[in-house]
Amino acid sequence: MAVQNFSPALPAPAVAAPYPMAQPGYGKRSTPDQLPARPDDFALLPLRERYIAGFIEHLPEGASMSVKCLAKQIPLYGQQAIASALTALSVAGHLRRVRCAIGVGDETRWVFRTFWSRTARDNEWWANRLTPGVPQPVQTPMPAPVPEPTQPAAVPPQRPAAAPAPAPVVSSPAYLALARLGHLDARLALSADDCTALAELAERWFARGVNADYLTSALTAGLPAQVDSPVGFVRCRLIDKLPPALPTAPTPPPVGAAVPHVMMECTDCGAPGPAEALPDGLCRPCRRPKPLTGPMPEPPVERDITALVAGLRDLLKAP
Questions:
Q1: What's the pTM value of the predicted model, to 2 decimals?
Q2: What is the pLDDT of residues 152-163, one digit of tens each?
Q3: Domains by residue range for the chain, with CATH
């Protein structure tokens, strides 16, 4: 008769639960151009930071990097210890927290990412990495030296020929506005050469958004009883009464273009700011030494040595 085996089956091996992932667009982001992995990558860090750095290094892209989530996955340390370790890793150049604006138009939103680098980086590298699109200085090559002429230069003429006068541009709005002044008031009658000479000054008015009526009204308002030099008078008014430049409205980004904006975040307190204002990934208050917490120890009580010695002597004399 066969004997049945009623021994229970061996339990299946425990499978570790997958590490929680952040929402799309958030979480861990590894930086490019890192050195090959080595066993001593974090050897210079303290024990706690070395352990947490090795744990973060093996996390997948997009993994949640919140202090609460890391503390649940690393039972050796609590949330406060994890937060202090992340601050130390930021100072060591391995980590930066940033806010990135993604989306287009009204659908733009901020996402929070943690950039991780196995290779320690300095502040300048992080600032350049987290500020895309900043033009780098371009060195202009020095012009080639011009060879000296082998033949003697020609003797310049003793009386240089006079430059020909520029032909008046009668189609220019500035020229036409100046030519109308004599028709509006005979005291400002200008010749064709005068209008050509003053056209450049009048063009500055049109460049600032005024029209011909505004220009002529400003030049003919409040004239004195007699104008000895119309061209000189008009030149002074064109210079002295030049209207202010109006600010131009910013050009909105084209529809469908992404917003290339990245703002670093303090690793300790989360305060946002530009990369140059957060060296080592920390804001100014978090870089200051923190005061000691907890109750202050009471000062030691001073004892009367003479009374103490006398009391000991009395104890020795007692039967």
A1: 0.48
A2: 444 444 455 555
A3: 27-129 (1.10.10), 173-240 (no CATH)
Residue 153: per-residue pLDDT: 47
What pLDDT digit, counting tens, does each position of 260-271 carry?
467 788 888 888
Average pLDDT over residues 114-142: 69
Residue 139 identity: Q
SS3 for the chain is CCCCCCCCCCCCCCCCCCCCECCCCCEEEECCCCCCCCCCCCCCCCHHHHHHHHHHHCCCCCECCCHHHHHHHCCCCCHHHHHHHHHHHHHCCCEEEEEEEECCHHHCEEEEEEEECCCCCCHHHHHHHCCCCCCCCCCCCCCCCCCCCCCCCCCCCCCCCCCCCCCCCCCCHHHHHHHHHHHHCHHHCCCHHHHHHHHHHHHHHHHCCCCHHHHHHHHHCCCCCCCCCHHHHHHHHHHHCCCCCCCCCCCCCCCCCCCCEEEEECCCCCCEECHHHCHHHCCHHHHCCCCCCCCCCCCCCCCCHHHHHHHHHHHHHCC
Return phi, psi of residue 89, to 5°. -70, -30
- Give residue 289's pLDDT: 73
User: Model confidence at 209, in pLDDT bands (50, 70, 90)?
Assistant: confident
26-46 mean pLDDT = 88
Backbone angles phi, psi at 299, to 5 degrees: -65, 145
